[in-house]
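Below sits the subject:

***
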Amino acid sequence: MPEGDDDIPELIARVRKRDEGAARALIDRLGPLIAKIIGGHSVLRDEAEDLAQDIFFKVFRSIETWRGDGPLEHWVARIARCTCIDRLRRKKARPEQRIPDLTPGEIELLEASQSTQPNSDSQAEDALNLLEKILNTLPPADAWLLRQVELEQRTVADVASEAGWTNGATHIRLFRARSRLKRAFLKHHET
């Protein structure tokens, strides 16, 4: 049975003391509100469960900051809306490429990705176009670093100096960026 409005301060106090029963009661009370907010963002409906978990994580992480001077639902709704907007911004910044978005040459190249050298200039161009599409799905810093080191063949020391990073940090970033690129390529290959 949902807690009444008069019981909210007591419920929050119990949640702050890490009472699992109170946490479940809060989830039951706020779940429909969060589902409604997520449902209002049609692009995010396929990610509803993950997004709801992210929102509840943020609510519980910052429950200490709720002052009680306004309705709890308003505070939670603001967290939920901001989380949804942030997710939409990330999707826009790193759009996913799918097979139907690729040209026939890029699809052929993706399928023949086991070979190490393109057979013609057109395959080399298709490879570069495919690489650019996949790079555009990565975080901007990763894409920039990979372009500098792999495509422009600049030294790690030069790139580190330009970016203001240490050589060690640049090597770590490069390793991680290459891993993300590989995962993005494999993801394209699977779809």
